[in-house]
Model the fold of this input.
Amino acid sequence: MNKYLVKSPPVLIDEEILQEAVLQHLSQDQARRIAKEEGIVFSEILKLHLDYRNILLIDHLWEFTSLAFLDLNNNLIQKIEGLDRLVNLTCLNLSFNSIEKIEGLESLRQLEVLNLTNNKISVIENMDALEKLSHFCIANNCLGQLDNVLYLRKFKKLFTLNFYGNPVSKDDNYKFFIAAYFPELRYLDYRLLDEKTKNKASMKYHDVLEKMRHEELQLQQAHEAEQSQEAEVKLHTDAFVEFLNGSYLFKSMLKDDPEAETLHCVPGVAPVLETFEHQIVELFMQLFKTGLSEHKQREKEVNSFISGQTKLVADSQQIASHILAKFEQQHKERIVELQQLSDPDLLRTKINHCNDEINQLCNNLMALDFELVSHLKDIIKMFDTNISSMVGNFSETVQGIFAQCRDLEDNYHEKVREIALATLENVAKDDLEEDMPDDVKMLFTDRDTVMDALAAGHDNHLLKINDRETQLVTRVNAWKVALIKGIEDKELKHSRTRISDIHRYADYLREQLEVLQ
Done:
């Protein structure tokens, strides 16, 4: 009897099942023995076969971070889930299950082959992240809408498609429809798409295709424009000068001014306001350009530091590799010599000598790491000094420009105040040279209201200027602090890892010697 025809109870994935699955595909007896004795490191496994096991749920796979191939065919799986950590997966087989919906694939950006044959799926969806998809098999499912297949046009690397056994494949135009809308496709339903079929399909759907290509081009251009705009905003934000390249801040100053529109209707105010706007926007633009230039210089400094840091670490690693290579050669020779000794006392003496050599190796590697840490501290300190100087100079420039902005606002306020006082007198005397709207005349019948409106506007304008200055200076300084702390914390972590690796390697060498005693 075929073992796959024997009914078994549904199961859940657990540690035992995973270990068994891994061991089944280790070809060498020695490898199996090592895996059993020392434990299987799931994070290093590249292929995993869990087919024909009556599995109900996809679970317990979070440690398989290096997995490239996963076979879950012929199980009882109803939902695609539990794959979030499998970021290196290139091939996924979920055929012959009970899946009704495509989902849970967001993390599989490296996936090239997806097999969903013999499930219960009725809609192709939720696959946007699979940009590298080249082979997609969804035969014998419930796909009923031929237009739904067009969802796959976004995957430019598609090489093979299989819809055999779906309702859509029974459509009279099915083959020509697929050939027309997927001109780069080579295989459909396990058969080669010949040029004759492709040419006939292209002619049959020529007008519709042209319209679709035009629409897709427009969408692509809109998407690219949006991405370009987002990249530009990000650059400006990273430079801490977002929305300073224009009238945005100036308009925001006037936006919350309750009497602004009314006061601006007073004869003589409009040209003063126009001059104020021109002058202050010019200052903002100067700050904007300075910010972008300073950001570029900071990036250059950061890249230079990273380059120097990387070289120091690489040089140290190269020296460490030479030390280890020389030691390992000698250690192997010593192990061979020890294995041939029969005199216990001599063996003990030789082992003690080997342990001394291991201790010396540790000391050499630790000294090398100490030297590396010392050099890294020096360049981090130098980098901190340089970047702090850049940030300090930029902050001074910012404060200087915003001080000029405040002077411009003071000047604008004084000129508008003079016009307002003159207008109050003229209204009181009923001696206006120009007509004013009724609401403006009404405002200027009460001196205190006019003075309060001017003062409120002045305070609001200065508040906006001060807030933007504080925000910019605070953010650039916070960035500098976070940058240096991040570098120091990362280097501390790396140093601890290197030291831990040295001790772990030394323990491994000592264990080799203990076996010989």
User: Anything to note?
Assistant: The mean pLDDT is 89. The beta strands are 47-49, 69-71, 91-93, 113-115, 135-137, 160-162, 187-188, 191-192. The domain at 3-204 is CATH 3.80.10.10 (Leucine-rich repeat, LRR (right-handed beta-alpha superhelix)). The first helix runs from residue 15 to 24.
